[in-house]
Amino acid sequence: MYKLSQSDLNDQDFGNFDIQDWCLEAFPELKQENFTKWSENTTTRFEKPVSATEISALKKNQESKNTRRNTSWAVKVFNDWKSQRNQQQPGDFKIIPEILRSTYQELAYTLSCFVIETRRADDPPYPPRTLYQIGSGILRYMREEGVHDMNFLDVKDARFHDFRKTLDARMKELASQGIGVSITQADPLTPEQEDVLWEKKLLGAHTSKSYINTEFLTFVL
Fold it and tell me: How far apart are CA 58 and CA 51, in angstroms?
């Protein structure tokens, strides 16, 4: 066993763990200037810290333009219906609340009313497929706005079981009426051609005509 002498105890350098010269000669990478360079190099490997806003912007920039437009269009269809419904206030019918602040009970009731009552701008009801696409667009909007705990299209979410039965029944009813069953034969519209229509504002919600064009395009596709 090693015993400390009195000289060891009086040594002012006791407990000093500075690297000795022989160690630095054997391992030059341990030198202070090399260590500093290494530290500086490692910090430049990564991008600057990003904010939540920048993360959201990155995801939106990489999202398909058509997906973004369809989401905006679906939300507008819903908001137009909600605005008209609330202005009418028929009898005992409930006022439709803001969708992002709705409870799951309110949301299930609201969407059930919506899928039955909503129609195209030129009056005919939406075909089954389009009705489901509108629901998907509303769901994407809710997720983008931070509502992640309510997925009314997920069969595993039992809270919206009644709404999904209503949607299924409405889609079957429309199909039985021949709505959306026949497929119009026409030359396919390429994504590039559709982008041109959006850029020229022939599609969208700019005018009543562009609004109807958008609904018609969704119907035939």
Answer: 11
Decide: pTM greater than 0.85.
no
Residue 30 DSSP one-character state: G
Measured distance CA(35)–CA(173) in Å, rounded:
73
List the domain boundaries for the chain: 65-183
Could you give the CA distance from residue 198 to residue 206 in angstroms, rounded to a whole number? Answer: 10
Q: Measured between alpha carbons, how far is residue 63 from residues 92, 115, 139, 201, 216 in Å?
A: 42, 27, 15, 20, 24
Closest alpha carbon to 135 in 117, 157, 151, 155: 151
Return the SS3 of 86: helix
Amino acid occupying residue 48? K
Q: How far apart are CA 109 and CA 160, in angstroms?
A: 9
Quick: pLDDT tens for 53-71.
Answer: 888 778 777 777 888 899 9
Which has more pLDDT, 218 or 123?
A: 123
Q: What is the DSSP string of 97-134?
A: PPGGG--HHHHHHHHHHHHHH---TTSSPPPHHHHHHH
* Residue 63 contacts residue 57 (beta carbons within 8 Å): no
Cα-based distances in Å from 89 to 20, 54, 96, 133, 163: 86, 41, 10, 27, 22
What's the whole-number mean pLDDT along residues 188-211? 75
